[in-house]
Amino acid sequence: MSELEKQGNFDFTEEEAFAHAHNHPEDTTPIYIVYSADDRDNPRNWPTWRRYYIGLFASWLNVLTCWCAGGISSGAGQIQEEFGVSQELTTLLLALYVLGFAVGPVVLAPLSENFGRRPVYVVSWFVLFMFQLPIALAPNYGTMVVCRFIAGFAGGAPLTNTGGTISDLFKRDENGIIMAFYGVSSTFGPPSALVFSGYIAKNEGWRILFWTLFAITGGFWVLLVLTVPETRHSKILEKKTQRVRRQMAKEGLAVAKNIREADSDEKKGMAGLFKVSLTRPFTFLFTEPITMFAAAYNGFLYGLVYLFNESFPLVFGPGGHNFNTGEQGLSFLGLAIGPLIAFCFYPLQERYYRRRVIENYGNGVPEARVWMARYGALLIPISLFWFAWTSYSSVHWIVPIIASSLFGAGIYIVILSILNYLVDAYQVYSASALAGTILVRNLVGGGFPMFATQMYKKLGNEWASSLLGFIAILLVPIPWILFYRGYVIRKRSPWASKHLDQDEDVPH
What we know:
By secondary structure, the chain is an all-alpha fold. It has helices at residues 3-6, 14-23, 48-70, 76-83, 87-115, 117-130, 132-136, 141-155, 157-169, 176-204, 206-227, 233-250, 270-287, 289-316, 325-330, 333-359, 373-388, 398-426, 430-447, 449-475, 477-492; strands spanning 11-12, 31-33, 259-261.
């Protein structure tokens, strides 16, 4: 009799389950299948190259869906002229896609929990891919309105799935590098959309731009189908359990009917999953200070990123530096390069975190995740004021672009640090905290562009950007509070306190 049987624990690996069934062929006590230590079916035991490929592929989908979102700004003037609509209505086409980002994850997250990551990726990305076609062929503005929202809804799948995919593939304290790439995809994607789309829209027209997106998203859908497997542990265990059950049934073993996958008794049905996904994020948003801080900061920063889609043409376009559409797209290079520069310094943050974990006897220290964010937060108002007061047409155009690169670096550092903090602080409840944060982030991201033009025209380029800088100053204390007082806040949280390690302390 195995040690597990002596303890009355029937959580068995596949090999242990067969051994137990053969030793007790008439026993019908339920057996729960779990992974063995070196189980090849466990995504965390797959070859390193394969895990990184899947993580990087999923992260790149974030970039592509942002291209689909923001690229339309490069063709906004042509759409206005062709359909005879106002600037506000073309801005609405950007806002609707980002609004789809906000709504989509609420529905797609429980589907991912129930059916697995792969079906959600495959189906939703196919919808995104196919809905570039009616936009490219749109006979009127109304068609674009409907199709943009549906495309944004489907395009929210990577926002829902990528974090979960990385969690499937890497242990919490081993995911620093891949999470850094994920952070780049989230912050590089929106500004690079204009860099990618500017000259296509200028030289070929806005319809060719969407034909290009149709081709790119279609190509990646084929790669997705062919190269990205299911990574969700519960779905893989479910298939493993079915295989074991069939084999035991062939051998006539009595326990075959009572073979189950681990945690099968705790599984929620679709109704339960939707109930949690629709209620718990709001519970976190209105009762958890950490989630409130994260949502406020993320919402503001993403709002600014999409607001710049409308304000940069005012600074660099005909009323400013007189850039054409292609050159206006290239003006976003600063915003796009900033996260790449900050990524190069991420090893410093990871080294600090590792040191704090070692000092803390191997226990996680969530507060150490925001060590660098304290200084990244300072870059944001500095860059906004720099951008504001160098946006005169008499100042060389490279100067405000350099300022925007500092902003890009700041948002990368802050967003990645705070999202990592949420995951470490809430652990099994992190999906709800992230869902609430992402919901606010995308609602604000969709709303900010709607008033950008009016604000910049009324206040002027300098004072409009300065106003944003003053708001950014108000948010600077957030990472400092999380770093120095986060442990105390988590201790008072009914959700985060469940994961406090006994030896955990405040980082220094």
